[in-house]
Write a structure and sequence with these properties.
single chain; 109 residues; alpha/beta; Transcription Regulator spoIIAA; 5-stranded mixed β-sheet; 5 strands; anti-sigma factor antagonist activity; STAS_dom_sf; Anti-sigma factor antagonist
Length: 109
Amino acid sequence: MTITASHAPAGLVLEVAGDLDHTNAQQLRHSAQETALPPGRLLAMDLSKLEFCDSSGFTALIAVRNQVVSAGGEVVLVAVTANMRRLLHLTGLDQVFDIRDTVALLTDR
């Protein structure tokens, strides 16, 4: 798994690529902690290149969301693949996460 950070007008974008599983879920948590996102800002997780996500990966996504929200920020999942959307729906996490089609839509909040 690789995580690439870039800045967007509304906050920060983390592009997650590869497999998010029990072997590297902690890496996503650490990447989010290192961003030091100020309150009121947005963390967008671009999942367009995410190929696989197991329960540890979902737990990491939830942990990142909880951390950002408790610090006064927001989390948005963007460019979520059809399979990942299906899993988010089956687990009810589509009701927890704000899901957008593209990073470009983040300025239209």
